[in-house]
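Hi, here's the filled form for the chain we discussed.

Project: internal
Contact: R.S.
Residues: 397
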Amino acid sequence: MSRSIFSAAIIAVAVLTPAIAQNQPQSTSEGQSIFRFDTFGDEQLWTDTLQMERALGNVTPRTALSVGLKVDSDALPPEVINAIKAGQVNLDDPAVTIQLLKLNAVIGVIGRVIDHDKLKTVSITCALCHTQVDNSVAPGIGKRLDGWPNRTLNVGAIIALSPAIANKAPFQSWGPGKFDPRLQFFNGTNIVPLSSPTLPVVIAPAFGLQGVRFETFTGDGPISYWNNYVGVTQMGGHGSFSDARVGISLRQRPDRVTPKLPALLQYQLSLQTPPPPAGSFNEAAARRGEGLFNGAARCATCHVPPLFTDVNNGPDPNLPLLHSPGEVGQEPVYASRSATKIGYRTTPLRALWQHPPYFHDGSAPTLPAVVDHYDRVLMLGLKQGQKADLVEYLKTL
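And the returned structure, exactly as it came back:
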């Protein structure tokens, strides 16, 4: 099965496509609709400049899933879900990808399909990088988990599909779950270089943000500052952004980004940190690890409960408390390219079980690697049993 059942399903649920984004606020918050469906007019980058409609029109579902794109099962009719579970959908047929886009089922990707199933425009939303699925239908297909970082999404590989990109090597070097927001920016017309060589960082979670005022690895600004920066300069939204610290000043009218930032922020703040799965940690070891966290391991010195960060604890509440790269044993280059140019924020510890790898650049693949790193940098002298207990506690956060 490929095109036939999908086509019948689309006719039956035609009201879901493209009107779904317009109708969404009636049933859920405005911020949720912005997060999931608003492109901010970024067709000017993804279609007009990168010509992604030419690339994605020939991509099979299997390829799309292999680079981390996710499918929202709530956007699929029951007969399609049953066919997927039964293995009756041809995942090697590009026509099926077009049908999924017509159903608005590819999370974070909005595709406008015209006559004879031709992909006319492509654009993206916040959900592309910051939503996972529960895999309840098949791997990569299930119910949305908003705010979960998509650490299987290979943004660089997707960008490298663009026929307009001549030098694909920097993007192909990123790998899954990483993105370099300081490599370049889009000014509404052209892609402008910022730094070289590329230095990607891991996609961060967008849950558990309540109380964390500076939501970037380098504390560049409050949450809406980063939403604005990414929405305009990286997603290519039709809006305005200005920060002399990074040498960017853009003004596009109408501004389709800035007026939506308050509602987007409120939705992000509502996204709760997911609890650890039942049975995923040793309770007795975790209790011992908590004592170490607050004592001999000195973790709580910087990861101050209840937010497990000290970024808000500086002498000026309007400025983040940052740590130099040498102090925390991190590479200095990415920090030097940031707006603050000082160092790194203490990462809030939230659902660590959910989003390896760790540190801004993903240089620690596992929680034991994180513990080993700080045991070495801070010369803690922890024993192997203590390290294991500490890891069990970190799994609970």
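Let me know if anything looks off before we file it.
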